[in-house]
Specification:
Elements: H1 6-19, E1 27-32, E2 34-35, E3 46-47, H2 49-62, E4 64-66, H3 71-76, E5 84-90, H4 94-106, E6 112-115, H5 127-136, E7 144-149, E8 152-157, H6 160-163, H7 167-170, H8 183-196, H9 200-214, H10 229-236, E9 241-244, H11 257-275, E10 281-283, H12 291-298, E11 304-306, E12 325-326, H13 332-342
Parallel strand pairs: 1-5, 1-12, 2-3, 4-5, 5-6, 6-9, 10-11
Antiparallel strand pairs: 7-8
Helix pairs in contact: 2-4, 5-8, 5-9, 11-12
């Protein structure tokens, strides 16, 4: 997980106003992950169904909602009366298909779904999903957390205040916008930061250990289910576009060229073999990339690659590092304020 940085965008926009006084944004890319309810959501990736329904109705009425395939044309055109919006979803969770897709179809709105191809196999539970359950569904954590991986062991001895759950504080906490309010949340962030930079094979080993610590059979839990190949094909044939999101969802910039190359190229190939059509869009897992990543992307058929950097799209946007805004579980009035701010010249 990665914190959303709106301050950097605000600074860039001030500089843009000084240099290009008349330049206005040509579009905003919205980033969704999960559609449904979750009590503790420190990364704010859940939007409940009713809020999503109202957001979609508002977008339909107030904006020109475009497909990614039209992005280049959209940027080149003079901005029309209705501003341009692009809707994206990351990670391929089942609620995207069962809940979000019918609402989008009702309003005839396009969207792009960025799919990590690991979801088509047996290792479809992501490490952060298990970690969330471990921290936020367990009333009491063990005295010691010990997780083994290829480089050794991660060991932490927990104080009593780390072990005990404080639902009032933790259910309100946003890791994107504020510091950890207690030692349990600080430990959670420490483990998140540690796992996020590991290689996929180590992340799998760590995830299996977290599964054992949870002591539950979680593969049958609908919370963890991802879309099937058949559902991806249905999306591809009905309004929607499918983009690549690597194989295992690693934070690419922390890894060597060979791993990045395999994760990017193989994920594109897998999707193209399924869809029987080219894949032209990509999203960087956790929003992380480096010069190596950008060089690899340029060597593929990818036309547009999305970050998690907060901001709007301008006519001179670099198609390899497009900004997006995370849509939180917000009502329409708040979303309206946010988009109004982003579309200001």
């Amino acid at each position: 997980m990665r914190k959303v940085d709106s301050f950097k965008y605000k600074t860039k926009r001030i500089l843009r106003r000084i240099i290009h006084k008349s330049t206005s944004p040509h579009g905003v890319i919205l980033m969704y992950h999960r559609i449904g309810s979750h009590v503790t959501d420190p990364w704010e990736i859940f939007v409940n169904e009713e809020n999503f329904r109202q957001q979609v109705a508002y977008l339909k009425k107030s904006f020109n909602v475009c497909s990614f395939s039209s992005l280049e044309e959209t940027l080149q055109q003079k901005r029309g009366k209705k501003k341009n919006i692009f809707i994206t979803f990351d990670d391929g969770c089942l609620d995207n298909f069962e809940t979000a897709m019918p609402i989008l179809r009702k309003y005839s709105l396009p969207a792009t779904f960025f799919i990590p191809t690991v979801i088509f196999g047996s290792q479809s539970i992501f490490w952060w999903e298990i970690l969330d359950l471990f921290f936020w569904r367990n009333e009491g954590l063990p005295e010691t957390i010990q997780l083994e991986y290829s480089k050794g062991k991660f060991i932490r001895t927990l104080t009593p205040d780390m072990q005990k759950r404080n639902e009032i504080i933790e259910n309100r906490w946003s890791a994107n916008r504020e510091d950890a309010p207690n030692s349990r949340c600080r430990l959670y962030l420490e483990i998140c930061d540690w796992i996020r930079v590991q290689r996929p094979e180590d992340q799998r080993v760590i995830t299996e250990q977290l599964l054992e610590l949870n002591g539950e059979v979680l593969h049958e839990n609908k919370f963890f289910k991802k879309m099937s190949v058949e559902q991806i094909l249905f999306l591809s044939n009905n309004y929607f576009e499918i983009g690549a999101h690597t194989i295992h969802h690693p934070a690419l910039k922390f890894h060597d060229h060979a791993l990045q190359l395999k994760e990017i190229n193989d994920s594109i190939s897998i999707l193209e073999n399924i869809l029987k059509k080219p894949v032209h869009s990509f999203a960087y897992p956790h929003g992380e990339y480096n010069e190596d990543t950008l060089s690899i992307i340029k060597g593929t058929g990818i036309k547009y690659a999305c970050t998690t950097d907060w901001g709007a799209i301008y006519p001179d946007a670099n198609p390899g590092i497009l900004p997006r805004i995370l849509v939180r579980n917000m009502n329409v009035s708040y979303l309206k304020q946010q988009l109004h701010y982003l579309f200001k010249p």
